[in-house]
Design a protein that fits this description.
Blueprint lengths: L1 H6 L21 E5 L28 H13 L3 E8 L2 E12 L4 E2 L6 E2 L4 H14 L9 H4 L12 H5 L23 H4 L20 H15 L3 H13 L4 E3 L13 E3 L5 E3 L9 H4 L1 E3 L1 H12 L8 H6 L20 H7 L6 H11 L5 E7 L2 E8 L4 E7 L5 H16 L2
Antiparallel strand pairs: 1-3, 2-3, 2-12, 3-4, 5-9, 6-9, 7-8, 10-11, 11-12
Helix pairs in contact: 3-7, 3-8, 12-13
Length: 414
């Protein structure tokens, strides 16, 4: 229930004004690409202000205008967007600032926090080393961490990657903040390793970044590499992704953006400190939208990933009861099912609009939220269209997801 309220609260979607945001006159705009000739409709939000996405069917700048309107409406310091089609950049742009204090312009290569989209990268890493014979998805944690005696020891790697291992999530928002730097994923297990499972493995879907920490610890142990070395060897280097990194609070990372939250009086503040070393695998990576889109394109193209990686990631997880979830391995696989499960938290008109926009063809996706940041990755396999969007202002997951759904709908052009 905590996650449902987080994504679609009882008040529905609200878009705040520009309090504390840079004025459009001071914005630096970076853009490239060739998409044109489409028109975004107006999104009516019954419980909040109206976000008008400019209708400019004859203009090649319609995405520029739509992105500017969205960025202004939510008051984000900066925004980056990359759209790829058939493995090529179709449109790319950035607005505003990656760092307000240094007045560093945002670009599509700025390193942004991608939150839970880190799970998608970890899931691909899992499939890569499974294809190499280093792990078996249906083997248990205890097979790779023989000294691990926690209640989750009999959960399988597949269950961990599909959130069906019943490892607990966070007990409170405060628990998500860590001031401790862990040297490895295995060391970070101390945060939850002895805690009871919420159900028997396979009985229910229970979203858990801790589950991905446990998964990563097993992968690292099986490979003999650190988690960072493992994702580099299995995913980042083979795909040529130079702008993806662990969000290490200790290291100096060139290109890392600054991140912001809105105070109670509407002013922008620096996001609270968090050491992500306990959840690199589940919510602790950085990526540019350019590399995030390239990664997404590799999942549905000829990207050199493990055979059948797309099928494995996008097949809904099956519970012990035989019921299927809307999540595969590191990806949500059915937007209609996702929205239907959260219908009670959406105004009726918005629910109907979103269901209309997502009907007709599959979209695989994941959002990611971190302190001072929100990202979304959407992949439409039929058209091999990929959208990667990041902002450096926190607390706006609902708004970013709905905006991305609207963009993907209009890009379809039907």
């Amino acid at each position: 229930m905590h996650r449902l309220n987080f994504l679609f609260g009882a008040r529905g979607l609200l878009l705040p004004g520009m309090q504390g945001s840079p004025g459009s006159a001071g914005w630096i705009i970076y853009r490239s690409g060739a998409l044109k000739g489409l028109c975004l409709s107006i999104i009516m939000l019954p419980l909040g202000p109206v976000l008008s996405l400019p209708c400019a069917a004859a203009s090649p700048d319609w995405i520029d205008q739509s992105v500017q309107s969205f960025a202004d409406a939510v008051g984000t310091p900066g925004l980056s967007l990359t759209i790829m089609e058939h493995g090529e950049i179709a449109w790319e742009g950035a607005q505003g600032y990656a760092d307000l204090e240094q007045m560093t312009p945002m670009t599509p290569q700025s390193l942004m926090r991608i939150g839970s989209i880190s799970k998608t990268i970890t899931a691909v890493t899992t499939l890569q080393i499974a294809s190499a014979g280093l792990v078996d998805l249906d083997a248990t944690v205890s097979d790779y961490l023989p000294g691990f005696a926690g209640p989750a020891r009999m959960s399988t790697l597949r269950q961990l990657a599909s959130h069906t291992a019943c490892v607990r999530g966070y007990d409170s928002p405060e628990e998500e903040i860590s001031l401790t730097h862990y040297a490895s994923m295995k060391e970070a297990l101390v945060r939850f390793s002895d805690d009871d499972l919420i159900c028997a493995p396979g009985d229910a879907f229970n979203y858990s970044s801790y589950g991905y920490t446990l998964l990563a610890a097993g992968l690292a142990e099986a490979s003999g590499l650190s988690f960072g070395e493992l994702i580099s060897a299995q995913v980042l280097d083979p795909l040529g992704l130079d702008s993806v990194a662990l969000d290490d609070a200790v290291r100096v990372i060139p290109g890392r953006a600054a991140f912001y939250v809105e105070s109670e009086d509407g002013e922008l503040e620096n996001a609270p400190f968090n050491d992500y070393s306990y959840k690199y695998a589940g919510a602790g990576m950085l990526a540019s939208t350019r590399d995030l889109a390239k990664f997404g394109a590799a999942l549905v193209g000829e990207g050199g990933l493990a055979p059948d990686a797309e099928k494995a990631m996008t097949s809904p997880a099956r519970l012990n009861s035989g019921v299927f979830t809307d999540y595969g391995l590191g990806l949500y696989v059915s937007l209609p099912d996702f929205l239907e499960a959260r219908k009670a938290y959406l105004p009726e008109a918005l629910y109907e609009q979103l269901m209309h926009q997502v009907s007709g063809r599959p979209i695989y996706w994941h959002t990611g939220t971190s302190e001072g940041a929100v990202s979304v990755l959407m992949i439409e396999p039929d058209s091999q269209r990929v959208l990667a969007l990041s902002i450096n202002k926190g607390g706006l997951e609902k708004e970013v997801l709905i905006f991305a759904i609207g963009l993907m709908d209009e890009l379809r052009g039907d």
